[in-house]
């Protein structure tokens, strides 16, 4: 049986406990044994090197250097990493090791909760296949991203809330390699209920399975 670990905590505004419960259910339905932890100390556990998948849901907060380095080493050795929104890419802002692992870092969401479009850019990719671009109402994440990411979905900023970014095309969903490990990220899912949007749920489920090397 494949094993996954969800680590949730940090800022409560992203419903980390509810998201952890939802994602745990999805993974169990896919045949995973799922361990849930609520402190970053879990990332320092040598046993994480034996997992198939790690899901951080930990907005902001801090991670100890040794914890970050053990997490990076686990993924580099072949453990998958997957996550969404600020729970993965607005976590541990002072850890460049962690940011290098994830492939991006949140920096702004101009206009806060707004309507925007998610454009799926690689229709033949197994994570995207059969889905169509869709409208969404939430935070439109502006991120600093790794050019090595394989981008699967984007969004385009209008400039309505920050005129100098008018027309900027921003990655929304990506996958990447980190050593022997696979990393998947979706910036969608500001609140737990958004994870039940069919497109978002499908992207997350497929992305986690890809990262875990189904």
From TrEMBL:
Top-level taxon: Bacteria
Q: Where in this chain does the record put each ThuA-like domain?
A: 3-211
Tell me the protein's name.
ThuA-like domain-containing protein
Q: Which InterPro entries match?
A: Class_I_gatase-like, ThuA-like
């Amino acid at each position: 049986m494949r094993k996954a670990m969800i680590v949730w905590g940090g800022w409560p505004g992203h419903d980390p406990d509810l998201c952890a419960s939802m994602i745990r259910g999805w993974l169990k339905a896919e045949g995973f044994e799922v361990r849930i932890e609520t402190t970053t100390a879990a990332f320092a556990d040598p046993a994480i090197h034996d997992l198939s998948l790690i899901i951080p849901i930990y907005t902001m907060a801090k991670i100890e250097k040794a914890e970050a380095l053990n997490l990076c080493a686990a993924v580099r050795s072949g453990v998958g990493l997957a996550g969404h929104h600020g729970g993965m890419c607005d976590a541990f802002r002072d850890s460049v090791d962690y940011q290098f692992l994830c492939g991006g870092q949140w920096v702004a969401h101009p206009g806060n909760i707004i309507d925007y479009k998610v454009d799926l850019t690689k229709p033949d990719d197994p994570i995207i296949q059969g889905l169509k671009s869709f409208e969404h109402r939430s935070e439109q994440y502006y991120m600093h991203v790794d050019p090595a990411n394989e981008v699967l979905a984007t969004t385009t900023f209008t400039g309505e809330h920050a005129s100098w970014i008018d027309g900027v095309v921003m990655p929304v969903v990506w996958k990447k390699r980190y050593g022997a490990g696979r990393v998947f990220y979706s910036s969608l899912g500001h609140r737990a209920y958004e994870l039940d949007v069919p497109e978002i749920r499908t992207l997350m489920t497929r992305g986690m399975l890809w990262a875990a090397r189904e």
